[in-house]
Specification:
By secondary structure, the chain is of the alpha+beta class. Helix content is 52%, strand content 20%.
């Protein structure tokens, strides 16, 4: 059973089949990431707050408001670098006050596809589901290949003299 699962994953990777991702009641298909997608994901990861293990409960509750990039990471992976900045019109329900009366009103808002999908991810998934989805995404992102390439190029850059200094 485990061999067939490994074979299936290898075949999907070689054939570059899109990953199937479920968010709420919607299903998305994410193509294997491009280098541009990896760069955008890296930028989103860099905006995550640092958490320490000293006081897990307190740290999580005080810094959760700064974890919006988690939704952005999923959205960037699903959409790919080409589609993240496309504008979409989204309908949102908001409560408005008219004197003492509160009413729920539908408002149309224009935002990027990335922001709209990131909001949907954060609203639809539980922390456990988000954790599992992030694990699945990280396995499929070909990070090892990207790391190998950047490490190799950095090493080439370090071994080549870039500037000649004359001694007097």
């Amino acid at each position: 059973m485990a061999d067939s699962n490994i074979e299936k994953r290898v075949a999907e990777t070689i054939l570059q089949q899109p990953a199937e991702i479920h968010i709420g009641k919607k299903t998305f298909y994410a193509a294997p990431p491009s280098v541009a997608t990896l760069i955008l994901v890296s930028e989103a990861v860099s905006r995550l707050p640092e958490l320490s293990n000293d006081n897990i409960m307190g740290e999580t509750l005080t810094k959760a408001k700064d974890c919006r990039p988690l939704g952005e990471i999923v959205a960037i992976y699903i959409l790919g670098a080409k589609a993240v900045n496309e504008a979409v019109e989204v309908e949102r329900k908001v409560q408005r006050r008219f004197g003492l009366i509160k009413r729920t009103v539908t408002v149309k808002q224009t935002m990027t596809r990335k922001d709209a999908l990131a909001d949907e991810v954060l609203e639809a998934l539980t922390p456990k589901e988000l954790n599992l989805l992030m694990s699945q995404i990280l396995q499929q992102m070909q990070i090892g290949d990207f790391f190998g390439l950047t490490t190799f190029l950095t090493g080439v850059n370090l071994t080549r003299p870039t500037k000649v200094v004359e001694e007097n």
